[in-house]
Amino acid sequence: MITYLIVSLVDLILGLLPDFNVEVFSVDSSVINLFLCAGYFLPMNTIAGLFSFGMSLTGLRILFAIILRIKSFIPGWGN
């Protein structure tokens, strides 16, 4: 009951705020539909696998950059 009152109060306050639209860039709807239809052709395990592979590569690149940065501060080991 109290939660419903809080949610409706927040909804009322947000409803009083003015609406504005700032369009940073526009994307054609066919491009959006291309990404949306990928979920129908690729199983979720495939998408999750590709995402985790990309994240692990990014993590390894960041780790390698940190190791090289630390190594450059050690006398005799840096470039």
Describe what you observe in this structure:
The chain has 79 residues and is an all-alpha fold. The protein has a domain at 27-79. The protein has helices at 2-16, 29-41, 44-73. The termini are far apart. The mean pLDDT is 81.
**What is the number of strand segments?**
0
The largest β sheet comes out as: none
Output the radius of gyration: 24 Å
Briefly note the structural class of the backbone: mainly alpha
Oligomer: single chain
For the structure shown, list the relevant keywords:
79 residues; mainly alpha; 73% helix
Topology (SSEs and partners):
Elements: H1 2-16, H2 29-41, H3 44-73
Question: Quick recap of the structure?
Answer:
With 79 residues, the protein is mainly alpha-helical. It is built from 3 helices and no strands.
